[in-house]
Amino acid sequence: MQFHPLLATILTLPLALAAPTPAPVHTYVLSPLAENPATAAVNNILPRANAADPSFTDDAKFQSELLAHHNHLRGEHTAGQLVWDPELARVAAELTNTCVYEHSYAARNGGPYGENIALGYPTVRDTCYAWGEAERASYTPAEYEHPSYNSRMGHFTQIVWVGTQRVGCARKLCDGRWFVACEYSARGNIRAEEYYKKNVLPPVATA
């Protein structure tokens, strides 16, 4: 499979940081002094997959699988359960409906929500795995002790961010690939160690 850019937005000054293989990451960081601190966004592109997968074609399955995966991962990090927010889903749909594979203007410019995007994964589960467990594998015990923003793991840290309470997502079939976007409130990934220590907790087994 061919991978393309993986992006995450955070907040301080606009940065562009390269991540290791399989995909480069570009990050925008918000300062902890920003009025709406912390945003995170990610995107991946994979080749065309099964466009008829029910986790994409069925509204109820799409919502339930996204919530289940997010909340399972959050539970492993002592973070509260996210609830689905229709307004956030509407915002996500504004982005996916463009079929333009890039972060929203708001996410790139300190808007109120965190944002994860992906393109071309065969199922919702695969999409969430790329954002979550795949990045968590690189998060070491030392990083829980002295955390900071890392472009390789910003999507995972947004998902498990304790201060995030709501999520809304959308998808659109664009040239045979599913474009997925999730918006998060409150945003995660405030670029300061004190915020990471409070919001990105070790897995329950090692806490």
Automatic annotation (TrEMBL):
Domain SCP: 61-192
InterPro entries per the UniProt record, alphabetical: Allrgn_V5/Tpx1_CS, CAP_dom, CAP_sf, CRISP-related, V5_allergen-like
Record-linked PROSITE patterns: CRISP_1 (PS01009)
Keyword presence, Signal: yes
Signal sequence region: 1-18
GO cellular component, one term: extracellular region
Domain of life: Eukaryota
Keyword Acetylation set for record: no
Pfam families on file: CAP
Keywords, ordered alphabetically: Signal
Name used for this protein in its record: PR-1-like protein
Annotated source species: Morchella conica CCBAS932
